[in-house]
From TrEMBL:
Start and end residues of each Na+/H+ antiporter NhaC-like C-terminal domain: 146-429
GO CC, alphabetical: plasma membrane
Subcellular location(s) per record: Cell membrane
Pfam families: Na_H_antiport_2, Na_H_antiporter
Top-level taxon in the UniProt lineage: Bacteria
Domain Putative Na+/H+ antiporter N-terminal: 5-90
Transmembrane segment boundaries: 7-37, 57-75, 96-120, 140-168, 189-207, 281-303, 332-359, 366-384, 418-435
Protein name: Sodium:proton antiporter
Bilayer topology annotation: Multi-pass membrane protein
Principal location listed in the UniProt entry: membrane
InterPro entries associated with the record: AA_Transporter-Related, Na/H_Antiport_NhaC-like_C, Na_H_antiport_N
């Protein structure tokens, strides 16, 4: 029975515990133990599998810590405060202008200057008091981050998008279907449109005023209205160059940690970071991104438990046994399975190989085209980045918006992103493959 499958049981446990506000890392551990035990494994074996799988996200965790160090340096030079003050002068009390800026900066963080979510706990806290004055519902910002961080890599093969598309190509090819990279971006544009529709609906829904207490946070930085002139110095330009170096090295080496390390090395050579400040910068990076990196490691361990349990394959077989050869039912079930798998793991990149290995042979049997298969794999994997409590697309926004303790991770970030992004993606992921 599908409802008794270990994957389904563990994801339900994870969702319930998170909704009850148990810390995400604790909920993931309990969900992993639930998956292992319900699959017939003992506590000891499950923990061995869990800990052994944590290394799967080691590259991502290291990237976040190093990018956090870069973001800490940007803050230390005052560049983040300058940007925050410029934003403050631009928005003129308009919530939607701030939303547009957040979207553009988020998109840039995954393409032009690949610091990803590391900029959020630096840039957003100084803007909270301004958002409070506008009575801006912070769920609007969470919606903006969801689009800006996620839509570009799904649709555009640049920086993180190039990595995501490369993982899809390699995984689909390994599963027995030969495709070229250009098929991915030529197909995934519909997912971008679905997310754009969700963005508009979400912003309109949360545009009503919401009151927050004007709490002064230790992370909130300087007052945006202090009247001091904005002066751009050489060190600020050098930090911008460092971001570009991170992007170029990443593209040349396919290694995000190496790109971040190269940018930090450049900042040390140019004395933006002095030798005696290196330990402070690294510790600052851990302080900014360490929790998120740790959650990603735990999520990888949870993924390993699910994979080793064999429950994914049995779940797919059980689901497809009732399809009767229907392509519509097939696409719906595949997208639904993708949601179940990725909601617990919380990473679209890491689940692509798992999903592709299952989807490709089954979709070929149902008569789907290569474009349709690529689209379903991409959408099913991407579902884990919006709405999942273990996703960097939700953890990142919360790290900035909750700097003063007034933004709930589950109800103010995960639930809004799930409603306005995962639901539209599930709809197009089910229907659009029928026309490809």
């Amino acid at each position: 029975m599908i409802l008794l499958n270990p994957v389904v049981i563990s994801v339900l446990v994870l969702a319930i515990l998170c909704l009850l506000k148990l810390p995400v890392f604790a909920a993931l551990i309990i969900a992993a133990l639930t998956a292992g035990l319900s699959a017939g494994h003992g506590f000891a074996d499950t923990m061995v599998t869990f800990v052994g799988g944590m290394g799967g996200n080691a590259n991502t965790a290291l990237s976040y810590v190093l990018l956090g160090a870069l973001a800490y340096t940007i803050n230390k030079t005052g560049a983040a405060d300058i940007l925050a003050r410029k934003i403050g002068t631009m928005i003129k009390g308009n919530k939607f202008i701030l939303c547009i800026i957040i979207i553009l900066v988020s998109m840039a963080s995954g393409t032009i200057i690949p610091v990803h979510i590391a900029f959020i706990p630096i840039l957003i806290p100084p803007l909270l008091s301004l958002m409070n004055k506008m009575k801006m519902d912070r769920r609007m910002a969470a919606i903006c981050f969801g689009f800006g961080l996620k839509a570009p890599y799904i649709t555009i093969p640049i920086a993180y998008g190039a990595i995501f598309h490369g993982v899809i190509k390699d995984s689909v090819n390994a599963a027995g279907l030969a495709i070229e990279s250009d098929l991915i971006w030529k197909t995934n544009w519909m997912a971008g449109i679905a997310m754009f529709v969700g963005l508009i609906l979400g912003l309109l829904y949360y545009s009503r005023d919401r009151n927050y207490e004007d709490v002064k946070s230790h992370a909130a930085g300087d007052d945006l209205d202090n009247g001091e002139p904005i002066v751009v110095e050489t060190k600020h330009w050098l930090t911008l160059v460092a971001g570009i170096i991170a992007l170029v090295v990443q593209l040349l080496t396919d290694s995000l940690p190496l790109g971040a390390l190269a940018s930090l090395t450049f900042l040390v050579i140019t004395r933006v970071i002095r030798w005696g400040e290196i330990e402070e910068v690294i510790n600052g990076g851990i302080g900014l991104m360490g929790f998120i990196a740790f959650v990603m490691l735990i999520a990888s361990g949870y993924a390993n438990v699910i994979i080793e349990s064999g429950a994914v394959e049995s779940l797919v077989e059980a689901a497809f046994s009732v399809l009767g050869g229907s392509k519509l039912a097939g696409s719906f079930v595949m997208i639904l399975l993708g949601l179940l798998i990725t909601m617990g793991i919380g990473t679209s990149f890491g689940t692509v190989p798992v999903i592709a290995a299952i989807y490709v042979p089954l979709a070929l049997k149902l008569g789907f085209s290569p474009a349709a298969i690529v689209f379903m794999v991409a959408v099913a994997a991407a579902l884990g980045d919006a709405g999942s409590p273990a996703s960097d697309t939700t953890l990142g926004p919360t790290s900035g918006l909750n700097a003063d303790g007034q933004h709930d991770h589950i109800w103010d970030t995960c639930v809004p992103q799930f409603i306005f992004y995962d639901i539209p993606l599930m709809i197009v992921g089910t229907i659009w493959p029928l026309f490809l």
